[in-house]
Amino acid sequence: MPVSLHHAESSLHSLQLLAHQILSPKAFVPSRDTSYGTATNGKRVQVFDNLRFSASRTKDNPIWLADDIFTTPKTSRGVTIEPKFEFQPPQEDGKAEDEFPRMMDMEQALDEATIHKGLEQVPSPPAPNTAEAPVPEIPTLRTEYLPYMFAAKAPSHLPLTCANSPHCVSPHSSTPIAPGYFRCTQCFGRPVLCGACLIRSHQHAPFHWPEQWVDQYHTSSSIPDFWHGSRPQNYGYFKRTSLREVGLHVGLGHEGALCPVSHPADAVDLTILHTTGQHVARFRPCACSEKELWQQLLEVDIWPSTHKRPKTGCTIEVLRHQRCFSLRSKTNMKEYYDALVDLTNAAENKASVPYAYDQLRLTGREHRVLVAHMRAGRPDATASLANGELCVGCPTCPDPEVNLPPNWERDRLKQLRYVRFLAGDGNFKLQHLSKRSLSATAQTSLFGDGGFWAPEAIVRRYLSTTTPAPDEPKGQAKSACNTMAGDPGSSADGSKGLDISGIFCVSCRHVFISPNGVIDLHKGEKYRYADVCFAGPLNASYSAGLRYFVITYDIACKYGVNFKSRCCKPDCNFILIPTHNGEINLIFCVNKFHQESHDDDCAAKNALDYTKYVGRTCGEGVETIWASMNWLRYSTREMGFGARIETLSEHFNDWNWQKTLGIARHLTDAYAKAVESLDLVMQDLDELEENIGSESASKLRSKYEDAGGEQFLQDTTQLEWVSRKDLFARMQDLNTTSTTLSAASATDGNNLAHINIICKALVLETTQAKLCQRAHDLATLSNPPATLKDRVKTLMNTVKAGLKEHHERLFEVLPQLENLARTPVSPANDEILLPSRLSPEDVLHYNLTVFMTTEAQLRVCHAYDLIHELRKALGLQSFWTRHVEAQHSSQTAPTRGQTSLRASIARVREIAYAYKFPGRADEFATEEAEDDEAEDGDGCDLDGEMDTPQPEPKSNPLEEIIEKWRNEFIRLEFVHTLAAVERWTEEVDILTREMPATCRSLRHFALVWAQRANEVAATATNGTPKVDWANADPATRGYVAYASRKFDLYAKLTTDALKSFVDVVGSSAWEKIWSAPHEEDLTPIPKPSE
Q1: What is the pLDDT of residue 726?
Q2: Are 645 and 447 in contact (CB under 8 A)?
Q3: What DSSP line would sit under 283-310, residue for residue?
Q4: N or C: which end of the chain has fewer CB within 10 A?
Q5: Alpha helices of 24-130 — where are they, by DSSP H?
Q6: pTM to 2 decimal places
Q7: Do the bridges between strand 312-315 and strand 277-284 make them parallel or antiparallel, or are there none, so unpaired?
């Protein structure tokens, strides 16, 4: 028996059990509770606390795994897991007792009632499980809220009195106060106050909006007199006014109180933008201080638009609010300002609101950059910036100065554990439109070289001193491996009206945008622009001591060929990456999604799946960045160059910071998935080696170690491709061979003819089963559409024609069966004539034993195909079910997901019906197994007679071709499985290094902030005792307070990350991981030569 067929039959029983469980009307559902068994196969298992470590996994690279990281039954190498099965009867509402919404299981997928329901409509997703009452699926209007909304427009009691009575301050007020009664909607409870009490209560809340009561008794209306006769009988309402109009003076310099030395005549009016809208407030500067007005404003968190005689300002709160609004909604500042104007005066004349957008835009730009200086720990913004100093970096990537152990350079596997991954990609959505004239301020970024963009001086010099690479595609031409790019700058029409056609960005393995790793693309994506982007992070890591790098790029197969000669060699026109301290080791790979656009030879040689020391890195993380940043294209394409870079840099910094907050959870989930996946691929490799034999596996392993990337492709030099035309010609030659051919050859020809008939009959049988199922589904619909009827009719004609061709073909090869021809009936019910439809006596009478055996073997293969298709269809149904259940409960219109779910459900039913069709493979498999058991080990049949020795048949060219293809399939399966084991083993090793590196980085940042605070405090106090700290400069005390807050933040992040990592690997294992590399993993120190 061929090796591949033996491997197939060994798993046939398990597949049939799976199919029977799927098709069973009463399938048990495993409960969520999982119990783990013990080792039963003799493997040595070591236990550390809650750790399970299989010593037989990898001798050199142990895998640490906590028992409680999986919530579903998993199989670990060396450990047998026995899930508990528990049947739960359905409740009255048809749902099991579970607080989580259950997925539609396979039994429901094949149940007639559920399928019928799925044809009509998709079940609505369940309501989310929250502490509050679930939101009803059909939106309802709670009309009882409307009276309360109206009640809020009038005072709670009449006549109006001051809520502070009898302690009202109006009789004692010495300042002019507007008469009447007021209330503030921003104050809790909306108390009604007189003017004096309102001012007193808002001395420290000057940016609220009061409302004044207007009626015929208290305050006259602003409408003309001829309207008075038409007013309602009980005319009166609250009209918005301002605290300035009421008489409020905002004090400066005395923590919000009025300066006792100042005079009301010294007050100045300023336009202030706050989160509640645009206000005109009257400020009274402090007269006992020598500070200028802009300084006094900053002391109360108001950012003046100018130094000299400021007339406009923004509160720090509105700048922070705008920043958060922009980062989350990706809208521009003009839209935010329009919202502030609506908050100021939405119902009346908006033209009366002074236009302050330009002041907000310039103020927001200054605030954005200075906040970046604060977060970088820079007390002096005038000091020169280091490259990338204002950026949030990745805490997980290797950095010898921050997160690597002291002896990392002696690690035997440093090319795996301490390698820096960089991924580059261009984006052609973030463009910039051409503008006729821009000021120098608009063209210069305030981030300088401390941001994400490559240093401007290096970019200009490199582009001016170098020429396009010789191997770079010219003009609109694209290489054979670059068919997925969408660069508008590659054509003259696409770049019209654009100064910048896009940007190029470099990110790390953990999808952090690299500092100095972004550049603007002018008229297309060129090699030299990518060189400058990769040079930034490469230079930073090389200077720190790293020597191993993996670069992924969608055209890395072409781009990386001459990278060193362009950027690193001493004879370059401009040495972009100096390598004076040793060789730099670069590996260029194509990111996984873009491999499909490369030809086979290129994809195999540059694929991450077949490259050593890269783990399971995908290289496509930068694409997820564009999914978020592309929303900024409309708001940045018409900005000035400097403002555009600053806006994108702020969003890039926020992206990196959000990644920092979630890096521990990401690594924990990735480690659990890697361990689970490694266990599965190891089992696949063990089963494959067991089936092909140890000798064959050893030979394949030896060839695997010596061969390169081409071994993952089909070896076309050893294979002969036979087209359908050639195959038919050879079959005809065998069938029409002269009588001088041997009996074996004639038998081979008949076998090929039999195979041809049976294969086409099985396809026809599947189509007939599909017709039966479609007809049944159509009958269940009360008013089926005409299109469905036409489809069923077309399918019926196809089956009818196929039946006719089958019988003609059958009677041509087996003319003795012509007398068995039957009158055709309905195509859905007509039986396809094959040996399996005959009685055993008829099979012997018509000499169809060989034909019967061939059909049995092919039906086994057909059963494999159906089970495989059933598994794929169930997986697709599961995907669309999750998609539909994730939809919002208010989604009532049919969606693409619901349509796809119905189609997948129908597909499952069709395949299941085809498997249950008469003449299934399991019946033939059972008969073959009984025949095998009936035979004894000496080659005797049931009667005890010896088998007659058969002559050695002559070799068949077709069999030789098939055998070569079979061996090639086995080889490809082996090398791909072995490569998967290597990549997952490397991934586990890389993650084992990344977890302690993350903890070291976060701890380093906490200690750096503590050191900064101590250094600034020591410099400010000149070493004076701590009792004099209260007299220190306010800016210094503020810096120390900010540093203390950052210290606490990073200390908490470190503690949380450490707890997550210990939980996933176990405390004892974590001690070993933290102290790695150990002495046995280090290379020996070379002895000095004598």
Answers
A1: 63
A2: yes
A3: EE--SS----HHHHHHHTTEEES-SSS-
A4: C
A5: 106-110, 112-120
A6: 0.72
A7: unpaired
Residues sharing a CB contact under 8 Å with residue 726, sequence separation 6 or more, in sequence order: none
C-beta of residue 250 within 8 angstroms of C-beta of residue 283:
yes
Q: Report which residue type is found at 272.
A: I
Tokens 């080792």 found at = 39
Q: Which pLDDT belongs to residue 732?
A: 58
Count Cβ atoms below 10 Å from residue 337 Cβ, excluding itself: 21
- Looking at the DSSP assignment, which residues form a beta bridge with residue 65? 52
Residue (of 914, 874, 924) closest to 9 by Cα position: 924
Distance CA 1010, CA 382 (A): 23
CA atoms within 13 A on the CB side of 827: 27
Cβ atoms 526, 468 nearer than 8 A = yes
Who's near 738: CB < 8 A, 6+ residues apart? none
Question: Residue 770 belongs to what H/E stretch?
Answer: helix 743-780
Compute CA distances 1020 → 458, 1008, 1015, 1030, 1043, whole Å.
37, 18, 9, 11, 15
- For 315, the enclosing helix (H) or strand (E) is strand 312-315
Closest CA to 22 of 922, 923, 870: 870
Checking phi first, is residue 377 left (phi over 0); if not, alpha (psi -120 to 50) or beta? left
CA distances from 776 to 116, 770, 829 (A): 10, 10, 13
DSSP secondary structure letter of residue 394 = P
- Tell me how far the alpha carbon of residue 829 is from its chain's centroid: 49
Rounded to the nearest 5 degrees, what angle is found at the Cα of 1064, between the Cα atoms of 617 and 1046? 80
- pLDDT computed for residue 614 by the predictor: 94
Whole-number Å distance between alpha carbons of 101 and 124: 12
pLDDT value for 729 = 64
Token pair, residue 286, equals 């402090």
> Terminal CA-to-CA distance of the chain, rounded, Å?
66
What are the backbone angles phi and psi of residue 53, rounded to the nearest 5°?
-125, 120
Which tokens hold the place of 722?
A: 């036979």
Please report the pLDDT score of residue 725 as a whole number.
59
Query: CA angle at residue 1069 from 1064 to 1074, to 5 degrees?
Result: 100
Q: So what's the pLDDT on residue 47?
A: 30
Q: Report how far residue 607's alpha carbon sits from residue 588's, in angstroms, rounded to the nearest whole number.
A: 9
Q: Which residues of 346-372 are buried (b: 16+ CB within 10 A; e: fewer)?
A: eeeeeeebeebeebbebbbbebbbebb
880: which residues sit within 8 A by CB, 6+ positions away?
A: 897, 900, 901, 904
Residue 965 is encoded by which pair of tokens? 């293809």
Judge contact between 973 and 7, C-beta under 8 A: no
What residue ranges of the chain have pLDDT lower than 50?
Answer: 1-62, 64-130, 484, 737-748, 919-930, 932-952, 1026-1027, 1090
- Tabulate helix, strand, coil % of the chain (nearest 5): 50, 10, 40
Beta strands in 16-171 (DSSP E): 30-36, 45-48, 51-54, 65-66, 81-85
* Extended strands (E) in 398-523: 420-427, 432-433, 498-500, 502-508, 513-521
Closest alpha carbon to 559 in 521, 586, 593: 586
Give CA–CA dist 165/91, Å, rounded.
62
